[in-house]
Design a protein that fits this description.
The protein is of the alpha/beta class. About 35% of the residues lie in helices and about 10% in strands. It has eleven helices and eleven strands. The protein has a five-stranded parallel sheet with strand order 3-2-1-4-5. Strands 8-6-10-11 form a four-stranded parallel sheet, covered by helices on one side. The protein starts with a helix and ends in a 24-residue tail after the last helix.
Length: about 300
């Protein structure tokens, strides 16, 4: 404990005096969460990044893992962040509240990002982060491109869908999963199955009310775990005649980030293939965003 306190004091003493508000573009930026990592990497701000989280380079969890290659990382503690001498810390969803509070008490500028609940919430946050980095023009260009890709769900009946995760977790009517399903032309019935906006659903309940499409996003053969065993439940395998099953990479909606809008296109493609081969089901996805062109501020 004494060593940790000593490191905090030493690191704090190395910071510029009066390091409170950011009055000029930040040049040493540290992210405190996987979600904040993605906003920085979407803007190709590697030259200003002083530190990312340990998950930034995990391709299973981050769609920008390739951009994080070679970037400095930290362990999420206030001590490790302070040692990086940031002039701005960005705290997105799932950032450690204790670390954020300590940094703010020590006078380190912290930009807190609210967790986007819809795709439309993402472009304004891109502009917010870009302005803090002195990349306002680039941020507005990227945000405008993404806004132009947003569209409402198609009219008429849509295939029903549910995302089923280890432990029976089923995201419902709140959050980015629900919004991405809508944009991809699917009707998310997760909330109806659990009886709550977000909750857990037993395998038996799922089989009694099967969606047209069951989406799995947490299967990771390289890191098997007890919680994942539900995905191998024999009853689910036997129910393939009742519903189509599709695997979708969790990276595209684990965080609501600029990549989530590109993820809509991927989700629509995955759903279309699964439903199209399941009893010749008809599937008409909504107008979906096309990949952004390569270049400044583009998503890849």
């Amino acid at each position: 404990m004494r060593v940790g306190v000593a490191l905090l004091v030493a690191a704090f003493m190395a910071l510029p005096v009066g390091a409170a508000p950011v009055l000029s573009p930040a040049t040493r930026v540290v992210s405190l969460s996987l979600c904040a990592d993605q906003f920085l990497l979407a803007l190709d701000a590697q030259t200003q990044i002083a530190g990312l989280t340990r998950l930034a380079g995990d391709a299973h969890l981050s769609p920008y893992a390739d951009r994080a290659a070679g970037m400095p990382i930290h362990d999420g503690t206030a001590e490790s962040v302070l040692m990086l001498k940031p002039d701005l810390v960005i705290a997105g969803g799932y950032a450690r509240a204790q670390t954020v509070g300590m940094l703010e008490r020590l006078g380190v500028p912290v930009l807190r990002l609210k967790t986007p609940q819809t795709l439309a919430d993402i472009p304004p946050q891109i502009e917010q982060v870009a302005d803090a980095l002195g990349r306002g023009g680039q941020g507005r260009a990227l945000a405008d491109r993404l806004r132009a890709k947003l569209s409402g769900p198609s009219d008429g009946p849509r295939p029903t869908a549910a995302l089923y995760r280890p432990g029976g977790e089923v995201p419902g009517s709140r959050g980015i999963v629900n919004d991405m399903m809508k944009a991809a032309g699917l009707e998310n019935i997760g909330g109806k199955l659990s009886g709550r906006p977000n909750g857990r659903v037993a395998v038996e309940t799922l089989l009694l009310n099967p969606p047209d499409l069951l989406v799995l996003d947490s299967v990771r053969p390289d890191r098997p775990g007890v919680g994942q065993s539900v995905m191998d439940h024999p009853a689910l395998a036997a129910a393939r005649g009742e519903m189509a099953v599709a695997a979708f990479p969790i990276a595209w909606w684990l965080c609501a980030s600029p990549a989530s809008i590109e993820g809509v296109e991927r989700l629509a493609e995955v759903a279309g293939r699964a439903l199209g081969t399941h009893e010749e089901a008809a599937y008409q996805p909504a107008a979906i965003p096309k990949p952004l062109p390569a270049g400044e501020g583009s998503i890849r």
